[in-house]
Specification:
heterodimer, A: 326 residues, mainly alpha, 13 helices, B: 139 residues, 6 helices, elongated
């Protein structure tokens, strides 16, 4: 069993490295950008036939979906920097597709989490209202700003996320001695059964107002960059507001279905969704996530997580360089 | 201290059930319409070669050169292979709004007006975003 787990991790890691190397080789010396510039100047399309791109995206996102689950990160946080860095699509369309990818993943995961009470409506509804409203603002901001500015901010954010993933230590069961008045008024408490032990875990929140205020920032960033924002939701819900880690992760995943809905509509209405690239991305990532969930039970994901952090640092650096015009 | 009930509340279970069937229906629609598009069963509005050229440009160029409508203009082009895909996309994007609606009645019934109002407010926010009323128009 242990040997199988190592093989699975090694295979998943190798698949990602091969895909990255292939796209990097194609876009070496900024081939991707050069191709885009040539296409813009001459009016000629890419060298590849049109049907090659959906197939490449499908497999790329399939592998991303597996990796994302094994590494415990959202699909959006991998999709946007990697696809914008290594494919010839403009950032406007990558963000539109990224939001739909994150949304579809959250919609698929939501039912199970809600049924098991690992996602709580009592925790999610107040937070979702703030985050989704601000995601609209973020979407408009992101589409109004020059692309190089967004690339710079995206690069910095992705590198910050990588460092956060590396350094943050989530608390499985934070100690909340007293619930604050706002949390109590909103009824932000509940209980769930820990599947591994059968223990009933009761929980309540504290520092509710600072948490709600932070979701303003989270919402704006989610809309601006087309990211899912799960990377920010979990630390705020868990470390700041004191929700148990499983409830924080479950509620965060469910929250994405609401936050990303508002931002996705803005991108959709602005014409930033191209079905030819968006749909294989969504399907690839979702199928990959299903496979990843099944592998997760058997695999040891620590190696994958560190590899993903490395990939995010690289992709973030690439976005920064793109934003600086280097 | 009394032990809380670990079972998910009824309104949460209803939300989950609606989400489950809605999500998979939306994905099925997307697969079917995408195959119709890729196999050329319906002609696209923006040709395949044009899409692969335009997707590397800012959205403004894509809209002007591809003669692509914004807002809900896609609904007038459902006889085109590419825009037929927006049915599934719009359905998935609108699913949350649909799932929120029963929450209003459920929370009022539980005499929890705060959460009923939160649900109404969320529907308003998402509907405004979906309508394209705010800041609609090309990039």
């Amino acid at each position: 069993m242990k040997r199988n787990a190592k093989w699975i991790c090694a295979l998943a890691g190798a698949a990602l490295v091969v895909l990255m190397a292939a796209t990097l080789a194609w876009s070496s010396s900024d081939g991707g950008e050069v191709a885009a510039q040539v296409a813009a100047a001459t009016g000629n399309g890419s060298n590849l036939p049109w049907w090659a791109w959906p197939i490449i995206l499908l497999f790329f996102c399939f592998v991303l979906g597996i990796i994302a689950v094994l590494a415990g990160v959202g699909g959006g946080v991998l999709f946007v920097p990697l696809v914008s860095g290594f494919f010839p699509f403009h950032l406007d369309f990558v963000r539109g597709a990224g939001l739909l990818v994150a949304l579809a993943g959250a919609l698929a995961a939501g039912p199970g989490l809600l049924r098991r009470n690992l996602a709580s409506l009592r925790l999610a509804l107040p937070v979702a209202l703030i985050a989704s409203s601000c995601a609209i603002v973020g979407a408009f901001l992101g589409l109004a700003l020059p692309t190089n500015v967004v690339q710079l901010c995206l690069g910095g954010t992705i590198m910050f996320i990588a460092i956060l993933l590396l350094t943050s230590k989530n608390v499985v069961r934070p100690v909340v001695t007293k619930q604050d008045a706002l949390g109590l008024a909103l009824g932000m408490n509940g209980a769930y059964t820990e599947a591994s032990t059968g223990e009933v875990i009761e929980w309540k929140t504290h520092r509710t107002l600072p948490g709600l205020l932070l979701f303003i920032v989270i919402g704006v960033m989610a809309g601006m960059f087309g990211l899912g924002a799960g990377w920010a939701n979990v630390p705020v819900l868990n470390l700041l507001m004191g929700a148990p880690l499983k409830v924080a992760v479950g509620t965060s995943k469910f929250l994405l279905s609401i936050t990303d809905t508002s931002a996705a509509w803005v991108y959709l209405n602005k014409g930033c969704v191209i079905p030819l690239m968006a749909i294989p991305s969504i399907i690839g990532l979702m199928v990959g996530s299903f496979v990843g969930v099944r592998l997760l039970a058997k695999a040891k994901p620590k190696f994958i997580r560190y590899m993903v952090i490395g990939v995010l640092l690289f992709a973030g650096g690439k976005a920064l360089l793109k934003g600086l015009g280097i | 201290m009394s032990t809380q009930n670990t079972a998910a509340p009824k309104e949460q279970l209803l939300y989950g059930t609606m989400l489950f069937y809605g999500c998979w229906s939306g994905l099925l629609i997307m697969v079917v319409t995408y195959l119709i598009y890729c196999f050329g069963i319906l002609d696209p509005h923006v040709g395949m070669q044009d899409v692969t050229r335009l997707w590397s440009m800012p959205v403004g160029e894509y809209l002007s050169q591809g003669d692509v409508p914004v807002g809900w203009g896609w609904a007038t082009l459902l006889n085109r292979g590419d825009f037929l895909n927006f049915i599934g996309i719009a359905f998935l994007a609108g699913l949350t709004i649909i799932c929120y609606i029963p929450l209003i009645g459920a929370y009022f019934k539980k005499k929890d007006p705060i959460f009923a109002i939160l649900a109404i407010a969320e529907i308003v926010v998402l509907s405004v975003a979906a309508s394209g009323l705010v800041g609609s128009g090309g990039h």
